[in-house]
Design goal:
- This protein is α+β, with helices and mostly antiparallel strands and 315 residues long.
- 27% of the residues lie in helices and 28% in strands.
- The chain contains six helices and 15 strands.
- The strands form three sheets. Strands 1, 2, 3, 4, 5, 6, 7 and 8 form an eight-stranded mixed sheet that branches. A four-stranded antiparallel sheet has the order 9-10-15-14, with no helix packed on it.
- Strand 12 and strand 13 form a beta hairpin.
- The radius of gyration is 23 Å and the shape is globular.
- The N and C termini lie far apart (52 Å).
- 17% of the residues are buried.
- The N terminus is likely disordered.
């Protein structure tokens, strides 16, 4: 595997990046603010979890007759199709079978949100997408499907954590590795900065494409969901009692030695679970032992101990 650059090249890129940001801050403070806001927004959107758009229920006919559920998800990590004549990018998860007597198969497929928004406006396009997904399943897994299918409201094992696991967002090796700094490419950000400093004027983006091929091409293009995998931080969960001795709230303490500011953390909670992410560094998805009132949640990050403490009332 070839390296994208050495440490010296990366250092030079970083120095150039900071210099361009300093110049932009001094020459155009408003443009600098917009640029920072744009980068933060893009990062937040990229880290949004997959959202189940709809669920299909059908049957596998060969090699055995079994119920198959397909979660069709919207996920911004999947690139949008740039050309109507190109294959439709899709991220497909691991095919899973329920471990019960009449076990069913479960598959997750994710598309860029723009694909599903377009299909929402046209019922025929949505039907075509369903058929493409089913054809994709048969091609990838070598199983024959029934042409009959129904849209259902629920599917086994379809929580956020299940989707993450099957789609490969979080690997489960013994130890997660952080990306090599020498492999990082800062050119796209520097190009954006350059355009900002020119007031938005610059060469138009160009795409190189070859001549159209007459032979049949795939309708769906599989893309990988794997990237630099974050590690699971050390954490502990405690149940706090009120003056009467009854359990009243949960306290979660997370050790984040590689985090220097609360802004680096993305924290979400629901009645049932907590999701904490620090891009490419930490990832923690934890189920609560009991339902909580997420509206009472309060979190504090101590930059000296680099420890995050969350408290939330029990329902």
């Amino acid at each position: 595997m070839s390296s994208c650059g050495n440490s010296g090249e990366v250092l030079q890129q970083v120095c150039s990046l900071w210099s361009m940001m300093d110049d932009l801050c001094q020459s155009d403070p408003e443009g600098y603010r917009k640029f920072i806001h744009q980068q933060m927004k893009a990062g937040a959107e990229y880290n949004c979890p997959p959202d189940v758009h709809c669920r299909l229920r059908t049957l596998t006919l060969e090699p055995e007759e079994t119920v198959l559920y397909i979660n069709i998800c919207s996920w911004k990590r999947v690139p949008a199709r740039q050309d109507p004549g190109m294959p439709l990018p899709v991220c497909a998860g691991k095919l899973e079978k329920e471990s019960c007597e009449d076990g069913c198969f479960i598959l997750d497929v994710a598309f860029n949100p723009s694909v599903l928004q377009e299909c929402e406006r046209d019922r025929e396009k949505m039907k075509q997408l369903f058929m493409q997904v089913m054809g994709f399943f048969q091609q990838q897994h070598g199983m024959k499907l029934s042409l009959q299918h129904t849209v259902v409201n629920s599917c086994p094992r379809s929580s956020v954590s299940d989707l993450y696991r099957r789609l490969g967002f979080q690997k489960s090796p013994k130890r997660a590795e952080l990306p090599d700094a020498a492999s990082q490419n800062l050119a796209p950000i520097m190009q954006q900065l350059s355009l900002h400093s020119q007031g938005g004027r610059g060469p138009a983006a160009q795409a190189s494409c070859g001549p159209a091929k007459p032979e049949k091409t795939d309708l769906i293009q599989v893309v990988s969901s794997t990237s630099a995998q974050p590690e699971k931080p050390t954490h502990r969960l405690e149940v706090k009692s009120d003056a009467a001795g009854a359990a009243s709230k949960l306290e979660v303490t997370v050790e984040l030695p590689k985090v220097s500011a609360a802004l680096d953390c993305r924290l979400e909670i629901s009645h049932e679970e907590l999701l904490l992410q620090v891009e490419d560094v930490y990832y923690l998805l934890m189920d609560f032992p009991r339902a909580v009132n997420d509206k009472t949640a309060a979190a504090v990050f101590d930059k000296h101990t680099r420890r995050l403490i969350l408290q939330v009332d029990l329902l």
